[in-house]
Every structure is written in structure tokens, then in C-alpha cells.
Amino acid sequence: MKMSCRPPENFKHFVMKTVFLTLFALLLLCDVMANTINIADRGAKGDGKTDNTAIIQQAINECQQGTVLIPQGNYLTGPLVLKSDIRLYLEYGATLTGIPDMKKYPRPAKGGTPSLLHAADAANITICGEGTIDGQGDHPSFQLGDDSKTGAIRPMLLHMERCRHITVKDVHIRNAAYWVQKYEGCDDVTLHALKIYSHGNYNNDGIDISGSSNVLISDCYIDTDDDALCFKSEVNASCENITVSNCVLRSNCNALKFGTGSFSGFKNIAVSNIAIHKASEENRRHWKKNMPWMGITTDTTVIAGIALEVVDGGSMDQVIISGVAMKDVQTPVFIRLGDRNRGNTISSLKNVIISNIIAQSASQLTSSITGIPGYYVENVSISHVIITTPGGAANSNKPVPENIAAYPENRMFGTTLPAAAFYLRHVKNISFEDIRVNTLQPDARPAFVLDDVSGFENNRCWVNGTTATVSILKN
């Protein structure tokens, strides 16, 4: 039988397709390489001494729809302005280091805060790679005190204003002189797998989302001196349509915070699968030493694991928080509707669901949910919660001050609260289900204290294995 040496038609098609795809891939690679500017090729020196600001900024200006590559090395730079349609890629072993000189960071002409990396009214910006952005915030030139009371404005590391389609992923961000990063009035923001570490200065918030919408935050590790993850609405826009998942939050202040700035508000925000711990450094707070009256049992603590605050006339609506494990927190949950007289209207706070929480408290200052006279926190559901507290508090009939205009913080009502689990005041329609509180020492306070509360429901709530007590001060 005669065998044919001709390849089958399907094999020829396979070879032709493979060749075509290979050529196409090579063309794409050439196109990508053609649109990549390596700052070292432009003369940047990664010696940690040379000022590379002009070279890097020129690369950014030239590289439209391309990549500015930061190769291995330590590249010193002053403020940089990011443009639309650009990708800033930091190789593993690359560090973009801010020059530690306040003169390099003049205040913007229209006011505001300077920053190392800044973009305004831009779109399609990506910052990625396994390199590091270091603000040198611990340098003596940046040590100006809390909130720059000397008048000088310390720079943020990264500030995006009114930008669209922003992605920041994989990079290490560390050592800010002020806030680590702020996204203000932005739309479509993705923050993924960021490693954030900042303990060199005051006001070291990890991530601040201000008046932005359609935001996805996932798989981030945040370890900061100030609030770890903070939502604000200081511009004429709410924080809306935001998802946070699979993050570790470590802080010497509040771990997950909504506020303090709350002029517009917060809507449609879901937070899930979060681990909260004390910060790995404690350089300036020293809560246990400075506030002995709080009964703090651990040297380093988080102020509040979950802090929901609207105090400037804005609204909070449809916030869901689930799957949170927290340890070494002074107060597990702090919810506050207040009035700092900064807005034209009184704030509103409603439709909040908190579930599946495990908390280890390190103080006697327990959770609270409070409004103000005539303005109520409404429609709150809290379920499937286990809280372990130090206990050891005496029963107290001491009046709790209203402090309507005070700065919202867990200690705003004084040295203690009259409840062992939750203190509620000016609240309508709130339900607790499957709440278990364990006190390490006997606690004489009732589990729940209600003051001007209507529509209260509790089902399967226990303290140390016995049915939780409820004290009603006023209905």
C-alpha cells in the first residue's frame, strides 16, 4: 500500500494558524516595547542620591498610551504629575523615593495638599509592578507635628483628583509624610494587592476614598499609624457603589472608618472578609499610658474596629459589613450620627447591616450606636456576633453627655459607658440576633442600655452564657 507524504489539510491549517498567532504576538510585543520608556535609558540614576524628577516627568509627558518603566534601583524624585493613558510600572527591586525636602512640595495654587504623585482630571492611569513607592515621611524635615500645625503642609504620597479608570495594584507603598493615598471625586477605581506600611509621621491614613464612586478594593494589606481604610465625602459627591474584600487592616486609630468628613455621604457600600489587628508599630499614640481611665489592657490597640460616622450634614444609606475578625480593639463598633454645624442640614444614618463579627476588645469602652435629639439612627441590623471583653466594670448611673457637635470618637462620651455590650441612644428600628458576649472578669453593667430607642428587637443574645440583660432608660 502506497503511503502519502503530504500533510493533512487540518495540520496545514494548524501550522498556518500557529505562524499567524506567533507573528501577531511578536507585533504586539514590538508595539508594547515601542511604547515603553525606561527611565534609566533616559539618564535616570538609581543611586538614591541623584534628583531624577525632570527625567521621569519628561518620560511621563512623552509616553502617551504607553509604559514608563522604573527599573531596579533607588530613584530619588520630587513631585510628579501623571497624565492620561499611562502605565507606571515599577520592577521588582525598584524604589521611587520622594526627596525629603519640604521646599520641593509647594502648596498647589488653588490650595489643598501637595503630593509626590498627582493626577487631576485624567483618565486611564495604571500604577503597578512589584516595586516600592517610598515617601521618606520619617525624615526630620517632615516632622512638623499633627496636621502640620506649624503652617507647612506635609505631602501625601499619591493623590488622584476627578480622575476616571484608575488602577493601582501590586506595589509596595510606604512611609508617607501625610496621608498615604487619596482618591478624590474619582470614578472607576481599582486598588488590588497593595502592601501599605506607614508609621513615620502623624496622619498616616492608609487609603482615603473621598466622594468617589465605583471603587473596588481587594486583597490589600494596610499597616498604618492613623486610620487604615477611610471613606470621606468632603466634595460635592457621595462615596457610592464601593466593594471592599479580603483585606488586612492594622491601625493605631480606626481600622475601617466612614467619616469624619461627611458632607454628602455614603451609599451602596459592601465590606466583607476583613481581618483587623493592632498596628505593628506604636510610635506616638500610647493609648494605654495616656488614657488609663479606659481600662485598656494592651499596650497597642485599635480605637474602633468599625467606625461609621456622619456628622456634617451628609447621609449614610445601604452599608453592609460582614465577615470581620478583629483583635486588640478598644471598641468593636462605633456608629455616630452627629452635627458639627458644618453642613446646611442635619445628617441621616439608616439601613446598615453588620453580621458575622468576631471581636476581642481590649478596653471597657464598649460599642455604641447614637444619634442626637430629634435625629435618629434608623434601621440597623446586627447579627451573629461574638465579642470578648475584659469586663471588670462597675454599674454606673452617671449621665452620658450628648456632645452633639463633638468630634466623633469612641471616647467622646467620657470615661465609660453604662453598657457591657452595646449602648444605644436616639435609635429607631434596631435588631440584634445571635449576639454572644464573654467578659474575662465579672461586669456589673447590663448588656444593652437603651435611651430614647424604639423598635428594639433582640433574639438569642447572651452574656457569659446567660440571657443578656436590657436596661431601658427612656422610650
Structure description:
With 475 residues, this protein is mostly beta strands. The chain has a domain at 256-274 and 303-475. Helix content is 8%, strand content 50%. It is built from 3 helices and 32 strands. The protein has helices at residues 9-34, 53-62, 287-290; strands at residues 36-38, 47-51, 66-70, 73-77, 80-81, 86-90, 94-98, 115-120, 123-129, 132-134, 156-161, 164-169, 172-174, 181-184, 187-192, 195-198, 207-210, 213-218, 221-224, 229-233, 239-251, 256-262, 265-278, 302-310, 315-337, 348-361, 367-370, 377-391, 422-441, 448-463, 466-467, 470-474. The chain has a 5-stranded parallel β-barrel. Strand 30 and strand 31 (466-467) form a beta hairpin. It is elongated and about 70 Å long. 49% of the residues are buried. Residues 25-33 have low confidence and may be disordered.
> Number of helical segments?
3
Main sheet: strand order: 25-26-28-29-27
Q: Mean of residue pLDDT?
A: 92
Counting helices, strands and paired strands, the structural category is mainly beta
Poorly predicted spans: 25-33
End-to-end distance:
101 Å
Largest sheet: 5 strands, parallel, barrel
Overall geometry comes to elongated
- Count of individual beta strands: 32
DSSP helix fraction: under 10%
Strand content: over 45%
Radius of gyration: 26 Å
Protein name: Polygalacturonase
Keywords: Glycosidase, Hydrolase
InterPro entries: GH28_Enzymes, Glyco_hydro_28, PbH1, Pectin_lyas_fold, Pectin_lyase_fold/virulence
GO molecular function, one term: polygalacturonase activity
